[in-house]
Amino acid sequence: MSNHPQPATSVKLVLLGEAAVGKSSLVLRFVSNDFQENKEPTIGAAFLTQKCTIGDRTIKYEIWDTAGQERFASLAPMYYRNAQAAIVVYDITKPASFVKARHWVKELHEQASKDITIALVGNKYDLVEDEPEDGDTEGEQELLRKVSKEEGQALADEEGLLFFETSAKTSYNVNEVFVGIGEKIPDNSKQGSNGPANNAELASGVNASFQPVHLCTIVAKLKRSNPRKKKRNFCGDSRAQMFGRITRYIFTPSTVATRTMSTLRVAYIPEHFSTPLFFAQQQGYYAKHSLSIEFVKVPEGSGRLINLLNNNEVDVAIGLTEAFVADIAKGNDKIKLLDTYVRSPLLWAVSTGSNRNEITKVQDLRSFGKIGISRLGSGSYIMSFVLAHQMGFDKFNEFAICSNFKNLRDSVNKIQPQGDSPAYEISDAFMWEYFTSKKYYDSGEIKQIGEIYTPWPSWVITASTKAVAAKQQDIHNFISAVNQGTAYFNQHIDEAVDYIASNLDYSAEDAKQWTKTVQFNDKVGEVALDWDKIVVKTTNVLKDAGVLQDSDDVVSKRLDEHVYKTNI
């Protein structure tokens, strides 16, 4: 008898229900054991993964959290197609949401897989837990509960569903929902590499060997110190039908049952440049290379990416060339630069507050020169030296660390942090990618006072030294899939524009203009890195700007050891 651990059983699970019933909050509680009081509505759909251990088997839930707004309803079949499980959620204080839940149950029975496991969940129990169960009240106090537990149980019994009442806020019964679903999912790992001969054999194998226990051990794959307020959203609003054609998440039960997937943790900055990465996921390119990608969203920028790699919290990161070259040249031996991701240069816009009348042009920063940056070592920090050098002086002497783009905008507008938000200082100007900034020029929140192009290709793919040693084949497969995602991007520009406008913070017009300026590397890892453009030119500018202080020999040795001259 083998003592090797069984691979996790992957289960595609979709959440359905009316808007504001708490679908995203249930997922957030399950994945990160967190609750956000004023959660933003999901746009289109969000994707997360989470592992749950039940008895001697591990289930990896691949969760699609769909938007509840009516305009997204037509996209639902795209997400529940081939799903092995569904959670239909309603709000026990809103009877209309229970009516909608009936609709979703009916649609699932008619159009989803015939063996799909469905759980009916009445959420927001925390609002009614102190109310008498028999409905009697003193005086004229009105009960908040509008859908009785008996009504929910009756629908579940009628339609053959699991039934739970939950509170995402207090975590009541949340884990039990996912454990209950897991107990109903066939244990495909018992069938060996070829899978079951037929459904009867699968059923007999499960009945003979599967003994679940009611304990959910959460392995929070996406748990981070700052849980994302907006998850990876994969579809749009008014352009939803067009974008729906490019959203393909095809995990058939037979595929999941027989394939062992490797997991790679990939950190990215949530900007338009990330589009090919998600096209590769939507088109199933990672899955075809037996890869499960856990994307880690890093709005703070390249400095934060470097920290995640240094701490081995992620395996791969895609970020700005100058930040990674500078950090390696300064002696960071925990990172390997693998190749160029974007060949075109980056246009950095120099911005200040809309009402900062004392600052109208970039030359004014000689007098008002406290520069907002995301982090020390980030691209916004490095480029300040390049800007200073271009303006004819040594460097800016004062910096305000603001962590992310929103804080930078508030900082130049002299808006102090609110509530429990991390502290940051007021600054005079900051630099950020032009098209990301443009929306806020158009709205009047900030104003542009200058711009500067990087003298090098703008984005690179990097990995931790540890991951390169331990996961080289997985990284190779990831790069192959990204090349496919880039090819898809180049062949479907209209879909790329629609994706960016629907899921990221850009207008369709700005996204379209950006696609005319960007050139992705469509041969990552296939040809040798352009050493002169990526390393020599970047290093020379950083030296001239005063960012690099060590001798040429020392810097060259570090770069030789940690930047790939040939393909990975």
Question: Which key phrases capture this entry?
Answer:
alpha/beta, Rossmann fold, 3 domains, five-stranded mixed β-sheet, 36% helix, globular
Percent helix, as a range, is 25-40%
Which structural class do you get from the secondary structure elements? alpha/beta
CATH topology of the largest domain: Rossmann fold
- N-C termini distance: 39 Å
Query: What top-tier CATH class of the largest domain fits best?
Result: Alpha Beta
**Mean of pLDDT:** 82
Shape: globular
Summarize the structure.
The chain is α/β, with parallel strands linked by helices. The chain has 21 helices and 17 strands. Strands 6-5-4-1-3-2-7 form a seven-stranded mixed beta sheet, sandwiched between helices. It has a five-stranded mixed beta sheet with strand order 9-8-10-17-11. A five-stranded mixed beta sheet has the order 14-13-15-12-16.
